Amino acid sequence: MCGFAGLYLIDCLASSNPSATDLEARIGAMAHSIEHRGPDAQNVLVEPYAAVGFRRLAIVDLVTGDQPVRAADERIQVFFNGEIYNHLELREKLRREHGVAIEHGSDAAVLPHLYEHYGEDFVELLNGMFAICVLDGRDRSMRLYRDRLGIKPLYFSQQGNQVVFGSELKTLFASGLLKAEIDTAQLVPFLELFYVPGTQTICKGIEKLLPGERLVLEQGRSPRRERYWRLADRVTAHPGDRLDELDALLEDATRLQLMADVPVGISLSGGLDSSLIAHYAHQGLMASGSSANVRAFTIAFPDTDPGELDCARQVCKKLGIEQIEITAAAGDFLAELDNTTFFNDEPVADPAVFPSLLVSRAAAQHVKVLLAGSGADELFAGYGHYRLTGRCTAYRLLAHVLGDGLAAKAVGMNRAPAERRAIRAFGNDRMPYHGRAMTHLTDTDRSALQPLVANDHLSELAECFRNASNLDPRNQQLSADTETYLPHQLLSLLDRTTMGASIEGRVPFLDHRVAEFALSIHGDHKFGNKFENKLLLRKLAQRHLPGDVSTRKKHGFPNAVQKWLSPEAIPEVRAQLCDPGTFVAQTFPKAWVEGLLQTEDSVTQNALTVHSLLILASWHRVFCEASHSASKPAAAANG
Q1: What is residue 28's three-state secondary structure?
Q2: Is 22 helix (H, G, I), strand (E, B) or coil?
Q3: Distances (CA, A) of 502 to 146, 155, 461, 496, 498
Q4: Partner residues linked to 166 by β-bridges
Q5: How far apart (Å, rounded) are the C-alpha atoms in residues 286 and 579?
Q6: Angle at 131 between CA 511 and CA 237, to 5 degrees
Q7: pLDDT tens across 268-307, in order?
Q8: Span 551-586, pLDDT tens digits
Q9: What pTM was estimated for this model as a whole?
Q10: Which of 276, 271, 471, 270 is nearest to 386 (CA)?
């Protein structure tokens, strides 16, 4: 696990190009800006057509794992962030089919040889999470890859003759080629979704590579995006719940992700997803005959439900694995906001960012690798919007007989007309209902912010629905969330908060084989009676885990936003959002912002929107107003 940053010269013979000395200094500064992603080493490579800097967090092959790694033809060089879990299998494939013997090196060592022998589609052979940079000196081209499901990030921007890129936005700011400037066209989408959708970012002029994409950079040509994988295109429907096959596949996926030369832990909340990961990790070690010991980390906050802790203890007792319970301090959200923003990088307004960073810092005292249950909700139907509630179902049926108004009164439904239309359309088109479920502003907010609206914040989601039209309606929803909400918000959160503490987060549910298999199972098999979600995983839990696990409701981090915005905090909140000269005060309608903060009750009712505005205000302070926009706030520099 690492990070990299670099620069490609579209015309490497242009007289205006920087000197090799200037390139080395610039790339060194870019790499240094993400020191937290790789505190163990830094390398810089300068070629006539490109330069790349690399930060390493040593996980596999602690001695000889530095980068770049090279093919037999040393003009092919690779930088890599992530893990290739099937690298041993790929070494054997190279030896058997091409006589290539790779005796040493980390998992990255296979990559240049795979590119040399299988071409630019070599990523199809990889099982892993990755951002990859391939320099091909034979034609002075470069290819950048992002893994299939978007576990690892990659950003880029074209600045004249130069394409600058990196694992985080701050690497691009450190290049000196562009400044941090918030793109006002993305403000309303950010407030609606808690992230910026599509290829754009919060910063004007910077794009993100999407999951399953590569960026092709060639001499004299504009950068070119190419899609090499899309989940819905890889799904072939099969009858039945295929539970035995799913069980074996999850065990194999977890076994592969135990690969490491450093201690590995499991983030065990006591809930369904993480408990299953704990089971499969234990099984993987048993089956391999490894003497290694995986430990479960249960991290609690002062207001964590004691029932969750008890459930985690039961799981560890049944599996016979060591458990470490850590109590993380609640933290002072406002005092640490700018510090959190520095690591958040491209911002997400998920309230779990701050507690997740605290959790990662606590776990980093014990391990360098942490397995998490991310992706289970999106692939196995863990959210309520994948099925109508009982009241919505009743309303939808009655509306056909009684009409909209009488049906709404009959079931006591106090919802806006647009919401009721979305519910009535659910049987034929789930996109309207799904889209409303994924957004956070009220109709009153939307009216007040209309002057700032520059694009449709749901256009990416709608496109993902269309691309998954080959799937049944529920799997269509799952596929759309797996392409949007999962990488843009949840995986971004996981990457930044683990990397912010210099540890690696791994996600066995997001082995691409598991994702493809999950959506091959009809959506009807994923919900049970009485709206029981994630039915397939609950059945697996009944096989392997204590009885309570299979029936527990989903619990996330305690939502502390209202506590962060307590009456005592409101004066500071108002200062950050309303004082003349602040970004929010200068950008958003004054009456709307003041209305959100008018009373303690209005702050409480609009807590998530106020939280999102605080994130934007902090991002502007940290990256736009700072004298050097990639420098750490004082708290981050010390923490």
Answers
A1: helix
A2: helix
A3: 21, 20, 32, 10, 6
A4: 5, 155
A5: 60
A6: 30
A7: 988 899 999 999 999 888 776 665 678 888 877 777 777 7
A8: 877 666 556 898 899 999 999 999 999 999 999 999
A9: 0.94
A10: 471
Residues 6+ apart with CB under 8 A from 274: 266, 267, 268, 372, 373
Six token digits for residue 334: 């406002």
Whether 612 and 195 have beta carbons less than 8 Å apart is answered as no
Residues present in the chain in total: 639
Classified as helix, coil or strand, 292 is coil
Rg (CA), the chain: 25
Question: What's the first-to-final CA gap in the chain, in angstroms?
Answer: 20
Distance CA 144, CA 160 (A): 19
Helix or strand (DSSP H, E) at 69: strand 69-70
Would you say residue 211 has pLDDT above 80?
yes
Relative to beta strand 50-56, strand 2-9 is antiparallel
Bridge partners for 12 per DSSP = none
Helix ranges (H only) for 258-386 are 272-288, 306-319, 337-344, 353-363, 376-380
Q: What is the average pLDDT across 347-359? A: 92
Please, which pLDDT band fits residue 635 given cuts at 50, 70 and 90? very low
Phi-psi region of 502 (alpha: psi -120 to 50; beta: other; left: phi over 0): left
188 in Cβ contact with 55 (< 8 Å):
no
- Six token digits for residue 492: 């971004």
Cβ atoms 155, 205 nearer than 8 A? no
**Tokens, residue 38:** 């790789």
pLDDT at 119: 97
Decide: 280 and 534 in contact? Cβ < 8 Å: no
Q: What is the pLDDT of residues 113-122, one digit of tens each?
A: 999 999 999 9
Edge-first strand order for the sheet with 50-56 is: 41-46, 50-56, 2-9, 162-166, 155-159, 207-208
